[in-house]
Amino acid sequence: MRSSTSNSDAPGGHWLKAWLLAATLVVLVVTFWEGALRTAGFAPQFADNRALWLSARHRLSRPDPSAIAILGASRVQRAVDVDVLSAQLGRPVVQLAVEGSSGLPVLENLAADPRFRGTVIISIAPAFSFNRRLSKLDAGNQAAWVRDYMQQSRSRRAEQEMRLGIQGLFAFRSADAAVTRTIPALLDRSSLPVADFKRTDRSRFVHIYPDRYEVEVSQDSVVKMYRENTEAYEPQGFADVLQYFGTLVQMLNAKGSRVFVLRLPSAGAVLDYERQTFPQDRFWQPMQRYLDARFIHFDDYSGLLGYMSADGSHVDSAMAGEFTRQLALVLTANGI
Q1: CA angle 49–55–57, rounded 5-degree value
Q2: Which uninterrupted H or E stretch holds 208?
Q3: Which of 230, 224, 305, 226 has its CA nearest to residue 263?
Q4: How many CB atoms sit inside 10 A of residue 273's CB?
Q5: What does the CA dihedral 310, 334, 55, 143 come to, rounded to 10 degrees?
Q6: How confident is the model at residue 172 (pLDDT cuts 50, 70, 90)?
Q7: End-to-end CA distance of the chain, in Å?
Q8: Burial readout 120-146 (b: 16 or more C-beta within 10 A, e: otherwise)
Q9: pLDDT at residue number 32
Q10: Burial category of 209 from C-beta neighbours within 10 Å (exposed 0-12, middle 13-18, buried 19 and up)
Q11: pLDDT, tens only, 19-50
Q12: Among 156, 196, 248, 302, which is most exposed with the fewest C-beta within 10 angstroms?
């Protein structure tokens, strides 16, 4: 006789077992897949996208005069290890650079934000800062991200932070492990694909692994891209940009912020092209005369030399930590 205390026939009893079994299977499959990915060299990482940028920008939503905002394009995003710079300077550092951008839309946003009282370091890369055809190179659509920041609700931000938290815990949540990459590779080669050449930290510092490039990236290929997509501003066009830039600097200075204009190193054929197409006497020197800011040019500091990658445009990721320490010394010497 079946005991009256048995619940095997209780309503929902079989469904509960089914759900527990399904949950167990899901956990086992996810654990196996996570282990396989990590064994193959995959790791938790972040996509260098709108959500990660917005999260960084929100770190400056509260007044903090000690905060440092970094603006620019990939050259500064790959060169400056944010955690190292923050430790060296003893101040919070926020990376707001966007690949393929001039930095001016974010500079305007910070200048207009009454809560921001910190320091701005804006990296000047000639092909982006002095290029009247910037839209052909702009991969980040920085102005659109600024608009998203202005419109983002608290609930959307909370959801975003939760997603980023999960993304930083599991390899299977990384872009490298997307099913659109892994499944075709498994079907085609019976092996997982090679991890992507770019890895982004939570701080938005970008590591580059040249040995993972699908096509070779050389100084000549960078120069070729620049030749096809850049055209130096004519005098009046640059004067207009300089006036806009100067107004933003004045707005920041008026509320107690400081602005540092930084020219990071380039080398070889890339540097030759930049000097020929964007000569200093037409661009860098007029900025020095017009803008009420501190200027740091790599030509003036030997400690910033010798860290370049093979592409001639970016600091080698393997040496970014030491480069950042040298940059911290230069910034300190300039009163940051």
Answers
A1: 100
A2: strand 206-208
A3: 305
A4: 22
A5: -80
A6: low
A7: 84
A8: bbbbbbbbbbbbeebeebbebbbbebb
A9: 74
A10: middle
A11: 888 878 877 777 776 676 677 677 777 888 99
A12: 302
- The string of DSSP codes covering 217-279 is --HHHHHHHHHHH--BPPHHHHHHHHHHHHHHHHHHHHTT-EEEEEE----HHHHHHHHHHS-
Among 52-66, 104-118, 167-181, 291-305, which is the least confidently predicted range? Answer: 167-181
Task: Give me the residues paired with residue 122 across strands.
Answer: 71, 261
Residue 103, amino acid: G
Contacts 24+ apart (CB under 8 A), 173-176: 173/44, 174/42, 174/43, 174/44, 174/45, 174/46, 174/47, 175/45, 175/47, 176/42, 176/45
Q: What is the pLDDT of residue 169?
A: 74
Distance CA 327, CA 21 (A): 56
* Confidence (pTM): 0.86
Please state, in angstroms and rounded to a whole number, the distance separating the CA atoms of residues 255 and 21. 61
Query: Alpha-carbon distance 291 to 285, whole Å?
Result: 10
For residue 160 the two structure tokens come to 């975003």
In whole angstroms, give the CA distance from residue 9 to residue 4. 10
